[in-house]
């Protein structure tokens, strides 16, 4: 019946020493993954959309479809 | 000293034989639930009373032997003494039961039953949906959303091909 005395102190410190670096690394990985999987493609999509965007053309198309109140389609 | 004497009495459940005098009127019955109880709990490891209250003759003789040197007690005798004082060891009391299976089964069963109730409700309780759910109305809604260029970059209108008047492949 001679078991070794178990660790009585520093239990939280020991756990943190192990888990904190992992937690930081995983958080950084999550942030990087989100940046490169979501935000960068989204920025690119918006850049591409507005490169070839003709505002007046779109406005006239919407006007003819009749969605505005201030300016009606050319027929009316 | 006096306190240890009291604890020894409590340990032998002497309170069950003690008398509560009620001002000369009689004896109050001591209810079971008012006496110290035995329970196996991890957070309070030493219960108020021993587990076995009425000792058999072998257990009595073992208790007498316990008063001597403990080094001469065999392993079985030590375990027998433990079992007199305690019902379950820590390993036994911490052991999980299979109760979670019944709980999960009950959860699924009642979710299923709720599904049946919802189906019945859908058929017999709710009235018609508004006219805005009609297919023709929905078609007009979609056309209006495309005309307004809803979410033209990455969302709704981005998936419509305005040249060919069809959804993008």
From TrEMBL, chain A:
Quaternary structure, from the entry: Component of the cytochrome c oxidase (complex IV, CIV), a multisubunit enzyme composed of 14 subunits. The complex is composed of a catalytic core of 3 subunits MT-CO1, MT-CO2 and MT-CO3, encoded in the mitochondrial DNA, and 11 supernumerary subunits COX4I, COX5A, COX5B, COX6A, COX6B, COX6C, COX7A, COX7B, COX7C, COX8 and NDUFA4, which are encoded in the nuclear genome.
Membrane topology, as annotated = Single-pass membrane protein
* Reported function: Component of the cytochrome c oxidase, the last enzyme in the mitochondrial electron transport chain which drives oxidative phosphorylation. The respiratory chain contains 3 multisubunit complexes succinate dehydrogenase (complex II, CII), ubiquinol-cytochrome c oxidoreductase (cytochrome b-c1 complex, complex III, CIII) and cytochrome c oxidase (complex IV, CIV), that cooperate to transfer electrons derived from NADH and succinate to molecular oxygen, creating an electrochemical gradient over the inner membrane that drives transmembrane transport and the ATP synthase.
| Any Gene Ontology biological process | mitochondrial electron transport, cytochrome c to oxygen
Q: Which family does it belong to?
A: Belongs to the cytochrome c oxidase subunit 6c family.
Which pathway does it operate in?
A: Energy metabolism; oxidative phosphorylation
Any idea what this protein is called? Answer: Cytochrome c oxidase subunit 6C
Q: Which residues form a coiled coil?
A: none
InterPro entries under this entry?
Cytochrome_c_oxidase_VIc, Cytochrome_c_oxidase_VIc/VIIs, Cytochrome_c_oxidase_VIc_sf
TrEMBL record, chain B:
User: Where does the protein end up?
Assistant: Mitochondrion inner membrane
What Pfam families does the entry give?
COX4
Q: Where are the transmembrane segments?
A: 103-120
> Which biological pathway?
Energy metabolism; oxidative phosphorylation
An example Gene Ontology cellular component term from the record? mitochondrial inner membrane
Q: Which UniProt keywords apply?
A: Membrane, Mitochondrion, Mitochondrion inner membrane, Transmembrane, Transmembrane helix
**InterPro entries attached to this UniProt entry:** Cyt_c_oxidase_su4, Cyt_c_oxidase_su4_fam, Cyt_c_oxidase_su4_sf
| Listed Gene3D superfamilies | Cytochrome c oxidase subunit IV (1.10.442.10)
Task of the protein: Component of the cytochrome c oxidase, the last enzyme in the mitochondrial electron transport chain which drives oxidative phosphorylation.
Q: What is this protein called?
A: Cytochrome c oxidase subunit 4
């Amino acid at each position: 019946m001679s078991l070794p005395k178990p660790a009585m102190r520093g239990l939280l410190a020991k756990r943190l020493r192990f888990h904190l670096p992992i937690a930081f690394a995983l958080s950084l990985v999550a942030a990087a993954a989100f940046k490169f999987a979501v935000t960068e493609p989204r920025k690119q999509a918006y850049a591409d959309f507005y490169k070839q965007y003709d505002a007046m053309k779109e406005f006239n198309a919407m006007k003819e479809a009749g969605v505005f109140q201030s300016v009606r389609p050319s027929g009316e | 000293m006096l306190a240890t004497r009291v604890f020894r009495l409590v340990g032998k459940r002497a309170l069950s034989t003690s008398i509560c005098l009620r001002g000369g009127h009689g004896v109050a019955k001591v209810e079971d639930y008012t006496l110290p109880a035995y329970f196996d709990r991890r957070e309070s490891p030493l219960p108020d009373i021993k587990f076995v209250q009425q000792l058999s003759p072998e257990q009595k003789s073992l208790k007498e032997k316990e008063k001597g040197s403990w080094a001469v007690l065999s392993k079985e005798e030590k375990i027998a003494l433990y079992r007199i004082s305690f019902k379950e060891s820590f390993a036994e009391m911490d052991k999980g039961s299979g109760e979670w299976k019944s709980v999960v089964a009950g959860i699924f069963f009642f979710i299923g039953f709720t599904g049946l109730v919802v189906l019945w409700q859908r058929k017999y309780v709710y009235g018609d949906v508004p006219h805005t759910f009609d297919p023709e109305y929905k078609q007009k809604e979609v056309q209006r959303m495309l005309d307004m260029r809803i979410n033209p970059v990455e969302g709704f209108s981005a998936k419509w091909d305005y040249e060919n008047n069809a959804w993008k492949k």
